[in-house]
C-alpha cells in the first residue's frame, strides 16, 4: 500500500463559499461535456484494467490511484446532472450531490497523481480517453479554486508576466545574446517577416538556454528565415495544465498572433511535450478555426530535414536510451521522429522496455513537477523510470521534452543517480556537418 | 393464464418495450449531444478508418499490460465466447429466433451447449470472486456491477438447469424466460449497455488518435 502521504491534502484558492466552489466546479466541468466525453462517462465497465497501466498505481498499489477512480466525483455529478437517466438519479437520490469535501479529497487525484500521460487509454477495453476527462475535470477544479497553490501560482505568473518562470521578453533577449556568442551564430528576434516562428519553453530559457543556441545554429545552417517574436515566444501553457481555459487561450493566442504578424509558415515548438499538445492539437480550438500555418515539434522538424538530406550530421557511437515524452509520442503521434534523428546520429540506442508509445511517464508532466507536496510520490513513481533505464545499460538518457528533462534531473539529484540526461536537439546541434 | 404464458406474453412485451425504449433513449441522448469538431490539421486523413480500426484492434491489442491482468482478461474473453455459443447455438434459442424472425441455422449438440453454459456460469463466478477480492475492483464496484452480474447469472443458471433436464416443465422454462425479461429491463440502465456503447467509445478514441497519428 501507499506509504507516501502528502503533508497537505488540498489547497483552497480564493474566497468562495463551499456551495460556490461546488457550483463552479460542476458548471465548468459540464461546459466541456460533448458526445464523446459523455459516451466515455457512460462506458466505464469498472474492470480496473487501467490501474495496471498507471505508474501511480503500479508503484504504490493504492487503489485510489486507479485512473478512472480519479474521475469518480465527476462521474457522480455527470450521472446526477447530465446523463440520460439523470432524472431518475435525482428523483431517487441514486447519486448524491457532490460535496466540497469530495472535491477537496479528489484534488490530489486530479492534480498530484495524474500526469495526463494517457497510458491508461491504451489498455482500457472501452478505449476511454481518461486523460482527456482529467483535463476536463481540471477545468472545473480550477474555477472552484481547488487547484494546488504552486500550480496556480505559476499559471497566474504566466498570465500576468507572460512566463511561468519569469522568462520575460527581456530575459529571452539576454539569453539570446549570450547564446549567440556561445554558439557563434545569429539569433533573430522580432524580425518583421520570417518563414519560421521559433518558440521556447520557459524551462529552456531559464534552465537549459543552450536550446536557444542549438536551435539557432541548426536553422542558420539550413539557411532558414526564422525569428523569435517578443510578443509570442513562450510555448509552455500552464493555463492548459492547471485547467484555466481562458489563460490557456491567452497563451495560445500570443503564439498565433505572433506567427500571423510575421507571416510564418511554420511554428516550431521546442522540446516540450505539453506545448506540443497545446498548440499542435488544441491551438485551432482556441483560435476557432484552422491555424494558418503548420506546427511542428522540433523533433519532427529535425526528422524532416535530416531525413530529406537537408541537414547532415556526424555519426557518434554514444550509447543512449530514449525517454519518450508522452504528449509527443503516445498522445502526439510523433513517436518515430526522434528515432529517425537518433539513427542518423549513429547512436547506440538501447530502447527501454516498454518503449515508444508504451513507455512509462517520467512522473513530472501535467504540472505535477511544480506541486511541492507531490514530490515524494513523484520520486516513488520515478523509481520505475530508473529501473527502465538501468536495464538498458546506457549511461545517458535522451529526451525531447525539457519538462521530462527537468523531472529526470530533479529525481536524479534526489536519488544521487549517476545517469546523464541530455537533449536530442543539443546533440544534433553539436554534430552538424557544416558545408565548406 | 399460466406462468409461462405470462412470462412469454405480457411480461416479455413489457420487458422488450423497456429494453427498446431505454436503449433508444440512452443512445439517442448521447447522439443528440454536441459533437466536438477538431479543427487542427490532421496528421493523416484516415480518421473514420481509425475509428473502425480501434473497434476491431482493441479486441486484440491490449497495450502495455502487466502479466497479472492477463488472466482476468482471458476470463472476459472466455465469458463472451461461451455467451455467444449459448445464445446463438442452443436449439431452443434458434427455434425462438426462427419463430420470431423467420431465420434459423444449425444448432450445436446439446452437450456442447451445456458445457458452454456451465463454463459461462463459472466465468461469472470468477468475475464475482475477483470483484470481491481485488482491492481496485472492490473500490470501483457499485450497484450496477452487482445487479448486472446477478441478472446475467440468473438467466444463465435457469437456462443451465432447464438444459440439464430432459423434459423441463413449464415452470422451469417460465423462470428462465422471466429472468431473461428481468435482464432486458435492467439492460438499458446499467453496464450491460456496453454491448452498444463499446462501439461509440472505441470509435471516438480511434478517430481522435488517428487524427493525431497516434497508435491505435
Task: Report on this structure.
The complex is a heterodimer of chains A (436) and B (216). Chain A is an alpha/beta fold and 436 residues long. Chain A has 3 domains: 130 residues, Fumarate Reductase Iron-sulfur Protein, Chain B, domain 2 (Orthogonal Bundle), CATH 1.10.1060; 149 residues, Rossmann fold, CATH 3.40.50; 122 residues, Rossmann fold (3-Layer(aba) Sandwich), CATH 3.40.50. Helices cover 49% and strands 6% of the residues of chain A. Chain A is built from 21 helices and 8 strands. In chain A, the strands form 2 sheets. In chain A, strands 2-1-3-4 form a 4-stranded parallel sheet. In chain A, α18 links the parallel β5 and β6. In chain A, α6 packs across α8, α10 crosses α12 and α17 packs across α18. Chain B is mostly helical. Chain B has a single domain, classed as Fumarate Reductase Cytochrome B subunit. Chain B is built from 10 helices and no strands. The longest helix of chain B is centred in the middle third of the chain and has 24 residues. Chain B is globular. The relative contact order of chain B is 0.18.
**Average pLDDT across residues of chain A?**
95
Task: Find the CATH topology of chain B.
Answer: Fumarate Reductase Cytochrome B subunit
What is the helix/strand order of chain A? HHHHHHHHHHEHHEHHEHHEHEHEHEHEH
Q: Helix tally of chain A?
A: 21
Distance between the termini of chain B: 55 Å
Number of helices of chain B: 10
Name of the level-1 CATH class of the largest domain in chain A: Alpha Beta
Blueprint of the fold:
The complex is a heterodimer of chains A (436) and B (216).
Chain A: H1 18-30, H2 35-43, H3 55-60, H4 72-81, H5 86-91, H6 100-112, H7 119-123, H8 130-143, H9 149-161, H10 169-183, E1 196-198, H11 202-206, H12 210-221, E2 226-227, H13 238-242, H14 245-261, E3 266-269, H15 273-281, H16 283-287, E4 294-297, H17 298-307, E5 319-323, H18 337-344, E6 348-349, H19 375-392, E7 396-399, H20 402-415, E8 420-423, H21 424-430
Parallel strand pairs in A: 1-2, 1-3, 3-4, 5-6, 5-7, 7-8
Chain B: H1 3-8, H2 10-32, H3 47-57, H4 70-89, H5 91-101, H6 110-133, H7 135-140, H8 143-164, H9 170-186, H10 194-212
Helix pairs in contact in B: 2-9, 3-10, 4-6, 6-8, 8-9
